[in-house]
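New to this. Explain these tokens.
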Amino acid sequence: MSPAFERITKKMVRKHVSKDMKPIKHPFSATKFRRLSLFRDRSHFRFLGLYEDDPIDCSLMDILEPNSPVPETVVIGKFPISDTEIKMQKAGVGVNAGAELSVSGEATQFYESSFEIQIMNIPPKNLDVLRNSKLLDPEPSFLTYYRSRGDDLYVVTETIELINPAVLHENSSVKLGGKLSIPWNTYVEGQGQGEGFKATEEKTTLPQGMIMAYNRMKLIIREKVVQLIPADAKEKTFERLTRMGTEIREWVIMKPGKKNWISPQTTLPKRKPT
């Protein structure tokens, strides 16, 4: 896929909307970040080039009891964005090691896009309807898994979407020229020169409703009741239990057979009265 998509989403967030928004890097990932979608943070794997946010392919409403209220979305504005960018680079190199070689080149990149966006936001006051919502019982198995790992989970609460289909244009060209001179002997000298040119053009069509960027809040689960708080809050998604002076997770800590393995069926020894 052309890098034009990632380039335009990053530039849009940086110049036209809040920097708190996170740009979508690849159009194939856009559908996984719809409003109320769940994902986990893996920014500690940033050095591997992975998405910092790992979508779970599940909505917040999928893990709540049936008939839980759905918070309303507010549509904000209609913002036209037009972007044109031209990049040109020139370079030259010369080598003389028994043969004289000179090469020069020029590279040009051209990007153009024009589209309209709207902001789909679930404001905090609308999220209040979830204040007393409870998890399914029993809870989904993937929650048990993330609970055991101590992962933090997040919920998409705001998106930037395309109002109409859009086309991203990307053109690139490279022009090379060179000259080669080789002294075969003191009487005969060989020479050569040439030029090369290559041009490519790509068009990326984005459908109506494509998600270009999103914002998030952290999911907090306490005694089966959910709450959404600011994404940068220090509080953890899952509550930890403290027993016998040792902090443990609520569910599986290690694989069976390992030392100190705790399963859901394990009966912990009771503290002796002092």
The first strand starts at residue 22 and ends at 23. The longest helix spans residues 4-15.
